[in-house]
Amino acid sequence: MLTRLQQEVEVQQETRTPLEGGAYTTTWTTLVKLWASVQPINAAETYGQEKKQQMTKYRVVMRYLSTLTNKNRFLYKGTKVLVIESVTDPTNRERMMEVICRLENT
């Protein structure tokens, strides 16, 4: 897999802080900034809650990071949140990873 890693992404982790009454507040903390290849792979329109929504999926190729799971997310271009759906090591050699994400609609 020969891929140019030219876009910077931030790997983020969720932190939940309990509030009174059983609720909590969620914050996202950047764990690491790294270089990756970020490519849109498809887009689809869905209908939910009486309005049309667009869902765009991305393929992120990056160097192997053993701690990355679908509980993390990427921050891309400073404002785009990419929610991780799957993480794979296509060669099983722990060198590169392919991550499928969806763009979070905000």
Radius of gyration: 15 Å
Class based on secondary structure composition and strand pairing: mainly beta
Assigned CATH class: Mainly Beta
Main β-sheet: number of strands, strand sense, barrel status? 6 strands, antiparallel, barrel
Count of spatially separate domains? 1
Approximate strand percentage: over 45%
Q: What would CATH call the architecture?
A: Beta Barrel
The CATH topology corresponds to Thrombin, subunit H
Strand order of the largest sheet: 1-2-3-6-5-4
Low-confidence stretches: none
In round numbers, the mean pLDDT is 91
Strand tally is 6
Listing every helix as H and every strand as E from the N terminus to the C terminus, the arrangement reads EEEEEE
CATH superfamily: Bacteriophage SPP1 head-tail adaptor protein
Write down the overall geometry: globular
Key terms:
Thrombin, subunit H; 106 residues; 0% helix; 6 strands; mainly beta; globular
Structure, described:
By secondary structure, this protein is mostly beta strands. The chain has a single domain, classed as Bacteriophage SPP1 head-tail adaptor protein (Thrombin, subunit H, Beta Barrel). It has no helices and six strands. A six-stranded antiparallel β-barrel has the order 1-2-3-6-5-4. A hairpin with a 5-residue loop joins strand 1 and strand 2 (24-48). It starts with 6 loop residues before the first strand and ends with a strand. The mean pLDDT is 91.
